[in-house]
Write a structure and sequence with these properties.
CATH class: Mainly Alpha
Largest sheet: none
Order of helices and strands: HHHHH
Radius of gyration: 17 Å
Number of helices: 5
Strand content: under 5%
Helix content: over 70%
CATH topology: Rna Polymerase Sigma Factor, Chain: A
Number of strands: 0
Length: 116
């Protein structure tokens, strides 16, 4: 029985890796472009893509069972990640870091535009 559980976990791990790689290959650029427009900061946008793929990994049934297109689901999740990051002022360490990262991106953009 132990071997069966181990084999199932290994198979699930491989399937998860294939899913995430495929999502990134097929939709990563579009999600990154969208997140970059929302965040106005490439590093923050990369964090958004990472969190979006993490949420897809956590809920593959929701992703694959959605009525709409996969890309639409991923873009909606990316939008939620950005929105949560902007509104999570005191929402915990994980969101606090993201909120701080977005604030830094905006303040850097503000200071560079005020210089020129």
């Amino acid at each position: 029985m132990w071997k069966t559980k181990t084999m199932c976990r290994a198979r699930d791990t491989v399937a998860d890796e294939v899913l995430i790689r495929r999502l990134f290959e097929d939709h990563g650029r579009a999600v990154l472009t969208y997140a970059t427009r929302l965040c106005e900061d490439r590093a923050a946008a990369e964090d958004v893509v990472q969190e979006t793929l993490l949420r897809a990994w956590r809920r593959p049934g929701e992703l694959l069972g959605s009525k709409g297109a996969v890309r639409g689901w991923l873009l909606a999740v990316a939008h939620s990640v950005v929105t949560e990051g902007r509104t999570a002022g005191g929402g915990g360490a994980r969101h606090g870091f993201f909120h701080e990262h977005l604030s830094l991106g905006r303040s850097n953009a503000d200071s560079s535009s005020s210089r020129g």
